[in-house]
Amino acid sequence: MDRLRFLKSLDAALGKGLVKLLAGGARAGSKAGRREPREPARLLVIRPGGIGDAVLLIPALRALKKIYPGARLDLLCEKRNAGVFDFCGAADAVYLYDSPGGLVRCLSNSYDAVVDTEQWHRLSAVVARLTGAPVRAGFATNERAALFTHTAGYDHDDYEVESFFNLIRPLARQSLFTPENHFTTESIFRFNPDAPFVETEADAGGLIDAGGGLAAVFPGASVRERRWGGRKFGAVAAALDGRGYGVAILGSRADSTDAAEIMRIVPRAADLTGRTTLAQCARLLKSCRLLVTADSGLMHVAAAVGTPTVSLFGSGILKKWAPRGTRHRVISRRLPCSPCTRFGYTPQCTVGVKCLSEITVEEVVESAVSLLST
């Protein structure tokens, strides 16, 4: 069993019981237990989950740093999204939530305020309570609310950046909640300009110098119901290649089968799956003219570094997760059964993932060409 499945199983088995035990029969967020936030010397933000959630949290982290420039801000996150915080420049220290050693080291610190940004699972709220921080903020989505001193509602129709801003509002000054602090600016990551793009630079270097520039495709997705398939991504890559763009295939080793199918169709493409760190991938995306992707973490990374995207949405909620702005095209069939993801869970599809399978190569290519021509 992988770490993600283990954490979900552990939460399902122990979460409710631990919340009830620590709440002590009284709601921690009640008026009697509520404290008004004061100037904190040390903050902890908890962010389990994937890459996309981590990227969309960065504007709120930067707002906290702006509000309290002298405060230390620590992050407690999972191994799979830690890379985002390592190179975004928003945290003073990063601890691993899914590592016993990292969790122990984090809990040995003293915090004035903790913000738990997990939306549904209860164990992160338990961790927030165990810190002993006098101010604890979190989403009131289930029993977990009893362990916080300050809670925020959670709406499926709110853009996730806005949800995170609502969560930190008790710690923030209202004047910071202006459009420029939302996720509309480019290049929110910082990079070492001397760091290589990939382990073997030659693969990407020549493509960046291609006549039309570099276009990237990412065939992967953490949820099976969000995968469009290597053959269709390959057809899009072939169309881009035919228009003079160099094509880079991004992803992890888990995407190697789809990457091989794309390479069969476009032999000149560069298969970088499993060969880049998250930071290297972000730097490469910054050099790209375009990313074609499903609803995925790399979609959010591309938007964060200012790269236009064509994204395919089916099970995911557009209002909450789709990139904002005129530099992004979102393709969705908007079938009656979609979006079907709710409460952090996507059910197994029984109709052949029609929401994605009915999206044609032609309309994806059309959207890509439209973006590239602007």
Q: Please indicate the percent range of residues in DSSP E strands (runs of 2 or more).
A: 5-15%
Number of domains: 2
Sheet having the most strands: 6 strands, parallel
Structural shape: globular
CATH class of the largest domain equals: Alpha Beta
Written overview of the protein:
This protein is α/β, with parallel strands linked by helices and 374 residues long. It folds into 2 domains: 3-181, Glycogen Phosphorylase B (Rossmann fold), CATH 3.40.50.2000; 202-372, Rossmann fold. It has helices at 3-23, 51-67, 82-88, 100-107, 123-130, 160-168, 202-208, 230-242, 256-265, 278-286, 297-304, 318-321, 354-357, 361-372, and strands spanning 42-47, 72-77, 93-96, 113-116, 135-139, 150-152, 214-218, 246-249, 270-271, 290-294, 309-313, 328-332. Strands 3-2-1-4-5-6 form a 6-stranded parallel beta sheet, with helices on both faces. The chain has a 6-stranded parallel beta sheet with strand order 9-8-7-10-11-12, with helices on both faces. The longest helix has 21 residues, at 3-23. The chain starts with a helix and ends with a helix.
